[in-house]
Write a structure and sequence with these properties.
The complex is a heterodimer of chains A (134) and B (370). Helices cover 49% and strands 19% of the residues of chain A. Chain A contains five helices and five strands. Chain A has helices spanning 13-27, 39-48, 65-75, 92-100, 113-133; strands at 4-9, 31-36, 53-56, 82-87, 105-108. Chain A is globular and about 35 Å long. The model of chain A has no long low-confidence stretch (mean pLDDT 91). Chain B is elongated, with a radius of gyration of 30 Å. In chain B, α5 packs antiparallel against α6 and α6 (180-214) packs parallel to α9. Chain B folds into three domains: 3-124, Beta-Lactamase (2-Layer Sandwich); 139-214, Helix Hairpins (Orthogonal Bundle), CATH 1.10.287; 217-370, Histidine kinase-like ATPase, C-terminal domain (Heat Shock Protein 90, 2-Layer Sandwich), CATH 3.30.565.10. In chain B, the strands form three sheets. In chain B, strands 7-9-10-13-12-11 form a six-stranded mixed beta sheet. Chain B has a five-stranded antiparallel beta sheet with strand order 2-1-5-4-3. Chain B has a two-stranded antiparallel sheet with strand order 6-8. Classes of the chains: A alpha/beta (134), B alpha+beta (370). Chains A and B meet through α1 of A and α5 of B.
Chain lengths: 134, 370
């Protein structure tokens, strides 16, 4: 069974691929990755599977990432997955809303592979800490 | 005894009335039940830049106002005749030709010798209106700046960030001796992303060049030719267009008018269900005032009332809730071009997302220079 279960939610296939690739490079088969390209598919995935962490884009056609964030927190009010809001802009309103609604961290999508690797490593550490504490 | 009590108990004696009127910064007028101007305070004559009251005395009050306000004034006088006091704001130039905004209250006089007459008090609110308009402009500019900030952060930064990531992956692949297939795939994505970016930048550039270009190179165009060319420009399968334009002609900038209709066709195609054929009808007809009405209707999901308000604002993205998002420039371009040609454009709201179709109504001057 994989050590970490990650859901990547983004309407941009490239952003999904780059994160997927970084997780695969760092953890190999020790990570299970699932992707969703819109809010509705993400909510369906959260209903079907249990995840340790969700990378959640904000600006998507249809319902946005905050809609998914609220659904995830309603589904798991006591032990929600770590939720990393993953957006291409750091608009103060979005950052504030993300933390107000219970996101674990707000991450501005980086523009280098090394920064993405660093984010993936940080996420992995947070998952390990969460599991140790449980 | 206060001045008010004095007036109430003694009716208005001439001197008291004049003293009170002189205290008022408003233009105070007495109007007879037929709407004829019978009196105007000295301050009022100064405000209206009237040197000799006899020039306007006895004239129908609303006949001295611009055409567009006359019905409002006539209705106000009619209301006062029925004993109701009403207020309104309107624009009217002074006798010296200076345009001013007025806040006007029209009230009946009841009792006394002047029973049945009507008092109109007009306050010059030009400075207040100018400040209000300046504030509205600033708010609009601020909203636009905020939208532009988001646009830069999301739509412009996004593709550039992708170029960098893809380039890094190509370099990394080369260093690790990975096959050329992956690199070719990444390079193709860079090309596609660069095209999207260039389209966005072209859209922004067009938006800022409309006013300058649309007054140049106008010619008489057959509407049916414009629409045919717009359809060719979109060059996408799955569009069925039924144009009923007859011999209608417009005097317009050819490139810009083609852009109007290609944007509308493109929009309809984009919002149609993925596998469906998108059916559009374009109907042109001459309105009683001689202008040309062009109605573009499709069989897509339509515009919900909640999306109508800002629909022509640049960089406002419209999503139909099922996974479509545009650059936010297409409908803004349509509105700017039509306005620059002296026309108007509106979208017709549908009660909710469904199968009622989107309808866009354009009214343009017909084959004459604007």
């Amino acid at each position: 069974m994989p050590d970490k279960r990650i859901l990547i939610v983004d309407d941009c296939s490239l952003d999904r691929m780059v994160l997927n690739r970084a997780f695969g490079k760092i953890h190999g088969k020790a990570v299970s990755l699932r992707e969703a390209d819109n809010a509705e598919s993400a909510i369906a995935a959260i209903e079907e599977d249990v995840f340790d962490a969700v990378f959640l884009d904000i600006n998507m056609p249809g319902h946005n990432g905050f809609h998914v964030l609220r659904s995830a927190r309603q589904k798991y009010p006591h032990t929600p997955p770590l939720i990393f809001m993953y957006s291409s802009s750091e608009h103060p309103d979005d950052v504030s809303q993300a933390y107000d609604e219970g996101a674990t961290e707000f991450i501005c999508k980086p523009d280098s592979l090394s920064s993405i690797d660093a984010i993936v490593s940080r996420c992995s550490t947070r998952i390990d800490e969460m599991k140790d504490a449980a | 005894m206060t001045a008010v009590q004095h007036v109430v108990e003694n009716q208005i004696d001439g001197d008291v009335a004049k003293a009170m009127l002189d205290q008022s910064p408003q233009c105070i007028k007495l109007i007879d039940p037929e709407g004829r101007l019978r009196f105007m305070s000295d301050n009022g004559q100064r405000l209206m830049e009237i040197d000799d009251f006899s020039m306007v005395e006895g004239k129908i009050w609303w006949s001295l106002w611009p055409e567009e306000s006359r019905a409002t004034l006539e209705n106000a006088v009619a209301a006062a005749r029925r004993g109701v006091s009403v207020g309104f704001e309107a624009e009217c130039p002074t006798a010296g030709g200076r345009n001013k905004h007025w806040s006007v209250r029209v009230s009946p006089v009841t009792g006394g010798e002047l029973d049945g007459m009507i008092v109109a008090a007009s306050e010059d609110i030009s400075e207040r209106v100018a400040l209000r308009q300046a504030r509205d402009r600033l708010e609009t500019d601020n909203r636009m700046l905020r939208r532009f900030g988001r646009f830069v952060a999301h739509d412009l930064r996004g593709p550039i960030r992708h170029h960098r990531l893809l380039s890094e992956m190509i370099v990394q692949g080369a260093e690790e001796g990975a096959g050329d297939d992956a690199s070719a795939g990444f390079a193709a994505q860079i090309r596609e992303s660069a095209s999207t970016l260039l389209d966005l930048l072209s859209g922004l550039e067009s938006l800022h060049r409309i006013e300058e270009a649309s007054t140049q190179d106008r010619e008489t165009l057959a509407l049916s030719d414009v629409i045919e060319r717009a359809l060719e420009m979109v060059a996408r399968p799955g569009i069925r267009l039924d144009a009923r334009c007859g011999e209608c002609r417009i005097h317009a900038n050819r490139g810009q008018m083609i852009s109007v209709f290609s944007n509308l066709i493109e929009n309809s195609r984009k919002y149609a269900a993925a596998d469906d054929l998108c059916t559009l009808t374009v109907t042109a007809s001459t309105l009683p005032d001689g202008t040309l009405e062009i109605v573009v209707a499709d069989d897509g999901p339509g515009f919900g009332a909640d999306r109508i308000e800002d629909i022509f604002q640049p960089l406002v993205r419209q999503s139909n809730g099922v996974g479509i998002a545009g650059s936010g420039l297409g409908l803004a371009l349509v509105e700017r071009i039509v306005s620059a040609h002296g026309g108007t454009v509106e979208v017709v709201a549908t009660p909710g997302a469904g199968d009622t179709g989107a309808t866009v109504r354009i009214v343009l001057p017909q084959d004459r220079e604007v």
